[in-house]
Amino acid sequence: MQNSEIARRGLVLLGCGKMGSAMLEGWLAGGLPASSVWVADPKPSDWVQAQGVHLNQDLPDSPAIVLVAVKPQMMRDALPTLKPLGNGDTTFLSVAAGITIASYEKMLGDATPVIRSIPNTPAAVKQGITAIIGNGHVSEEQVQMAETLLSAIGQTVRLETEDQMDAVTGLSGSGPAYVFHMIECLARAGEAQGLAPDLAMTLAKATVAGAGALAMQADETPSQLRVNVTSPNGTTQAGLDVLMDEDAGLPPLIARTIDAATTRSRELANG
Q1: One domain for residues 32 and 157
Q2: For residue 55, what is the DSSP state?
Q3: Which of 159, 168, 162 is nearest to 120 (CA)?
Q4: Number of H helices, E strands in the chain
Q5: Model pTM greater than 0.70?
Q6: Domain around 215
Q7: Contact 155/128 with Cβ under 8 angstroms?
Q8: Are 126 and 154 in the same domain?
């Protein structure tokens, strides 16, 4: 198991906020010894301090992996301290948004194994999805090691090229916010039809959560699941006639939404 290599050589977690803590909790629950984990964080939570990890101590000489989970604006200050670990066999796994592989290579050395990833906020409840891409110095074993670590917060998918990261950011990175807003809109519309606010919100949350769970677990495609719910000339069909309108409905609106977020991701990556 890849965790044995991590347990032997050590894991460095640079930054332990919400995302880092969610991952750390999963690793420890999965059997990774706390003594194999080094956490570098200027303001560790009480929970982190109670886990028995090496906290803000001298780092091992050649850890298996360094997971970079600091905010992008803190990167320039935090990463130079790790430069001695670059150009070796330590894998750098980034969950920091908007920092390119080339940026890591520039800061750490151009022969450094770097894997860039984009998780999303459902990682906090172990329901995230994380897209990953590595540079040419990353072996299959190192990719699998990263996937093992990221499985603590949900699923992983591999990308073919780094420039796909902008579309991933627009779709799954930003996507939870779109769904949260849809919940708001469903609840508001329920209120407009005479439901009490609390009831409308409960129905909206449960409907979106349940539909998402069914879409993940069912053998049928989402298109088929939609058809299964839709009786000819029934209530669902009446609603879908509005929602699926090719000019004014959801298809063009979602297309513009994803395009705007993807374009913004490219702009931020290019400075």
Answers
A1: yes
A2: E
A3: 168
A4: 12, 8
A5: yes
A6: 173-269
A7: yes
A8: yes
